[in-house]
Amino acid sequence: MLAFFRRLTHSKVGVVITFIVLGVIALAFAAGDITGLSSMTGGAGITGGDVAKVGKAEVTENELKTQAQTQLEGFRQEQPTLDMATFVNQGGFEGTLDRIISSMALEQFGRAQGMVVSKRAVDGQIASIPALQGPTGKFDENLYRQVLAQRKLTDAQIRSDIVRDTYAQQLTIPSTGATQVASQLALPYASLLLEKRTGTIGFIPAAVVPAGPAPSDADLATFYKRNVARYTVPERRIIRYAVVSPDQVKTQAVPTDAEIAKTYQQDRARYAATEKRTITQVVVADQAGANAIAAKVKAGTSLADAARAAGLEASTQTGVEKAAYAGTTSAQVADAAFAAASGAVIGPVRTPLGWTVAKIERIENVPGRTLDQVRGEIAAALGIQKSAAALSAIHDKIDDSLSGNATFDEVVADQKLKPVTTPALIANGVNPDDAASKPDPAIAPLVAAAFQAAEGDGPQLVQLGTDGGFAVVALGRVVPATPRPLAQVRAAVLRDVSAERARQAARKVAADVLARINKGMPIAQSLAQTKLPIPAPRPVTASRAQIAADPRGAPPALALMFSMAPNTAKTLAAPDDSGWFVIKLDSIASGNAAGNDAAIKAARANIGRSVGREYVEQFAKAVRAEVGVKTNATSLARVRADLLGQGGTGN
Description:
By secondary structure, the chain is an alpha+beta fold. The chain has 25 helices and 17 strands. It is 47% helix and 17% strand. The chain has a 4-stranded antiparallel sheet. A 4-stranded antiparallel sheet has the order 10-5-12-11, sandwiched between helices. Strands 7-6-9-8 form a 4-stranded antiparallel sheet. 32% of the residues are buried.
């Protein structure tokens, strides 16, 4: 539940299906399965509707289902085509249970130690979510309640989740940095990073290897059946929406002459004539030093140079008005500076910080502006305000209607809006039945909202952009993921079968090349004997530090070279299935970080972070052991089956 609300901030969520955590809990638990599910007892003392018991608290089947759905929706922001079946099969189900159990255990342990999470702290976290702020930029209680209703959640559930997460942060953050690593311990790791390896990498593209005879219809049917997921259209949703934009209230947003005149009178000081000055100044601790600097400046030395000669640094304020200048200096300095002529030297003047010497660099007299001169400026500003007020009024009226269970059609008719119904779209906004279809950024927030809704949910309000516009969005229909018929995708299947055969043929060529290398033939000669138009092998020399420094990660072939023994060769499939690498490691030059303080310091920091995570992991395990955790295998199997039984829709 908390994950859903945090996603409203539009922050980027990492896609780690095998283990799902929130906030700082990720630091504690991302290393692996730390809840020890396999060691838990088989559910003694757990009621039929509960999947686990954590201390005195129970994890219900419904809570686990809801959390799994919420986590899936979060990951869909990164992988729009992700469905529930894939989520569960790749570890998302176990990860969700891990997160619930761990947070419950940490909360109970924290309470037992006398820790408290105040209501005010929880209020602050809820109020700080940008998507829960209304047109005025402040937390909107009605919007919050509407989101709760749409997600079938309660305020108590959200607050409970925030409290758990806060306890987890308070308990785990201190442990992450509680590590000290000796230099001697870090030395061998630092030396390992300096190790260099030299080898040769060859590549056999699948595209240049003969793939054999054309596949038969039976071959295509077999391949299609075995890879049917590849030709399956992901879950689609038909979305109904109606936009309320500033254009629709522009007639209400035109200010009257009386409103413009009233605003001008209220802000008369803003449009009055004013004087701005550019002033350079320096503050000196003693009067004698200030007198010396002032004398030099009056004699022709620049204030900046005179200050620098005294070991000080002058500052310049450009185009500043008297009130603003007084706020940064003092009223006495401002009076003197704004009474002097251009080029005059002021001071020394006593201030709370010392003695100020200033020079008037330039004086700019800004004439006042009449009502006619600023009419357009005021009208534009008032128009924006009136437009926002009109949109806010419509927003509140629709919100009230939705709170009263009004339907999409009723809201559209009441507000005389123009309804739009999309074709069946996948989660990235594309219509898979239209080859030319592309995501429309204008409705991306509406698509995202529709894919977070469940069938039967009421319409919701979604903000659009920053001009106050919004839309009423309703889920029209969910179209489950469906395989396209073989006849419809025959060309794609034929292409994929041919590509697969070419890859397998390339694999056999790579195996033959490897066999010759292992018998002592140089890699270049072995590749040449294939008689294929393949690129020449590439010599490579790199260090472990270079690989570690690459934010994109090491190329797979290079990474494999750093796990091989010298004078050995191996093959590796290219990441994009475009062919096969043949890697030959020629030599290893050991590194020595002795005396390299920077390398040792970096190694100490890296080891320290790993040790810190280990501390947190072990602490969490001890907390679970202290609190006590039991799971109900029967209930877990039932929830897992229910989730998979939804056909991957995630609803």
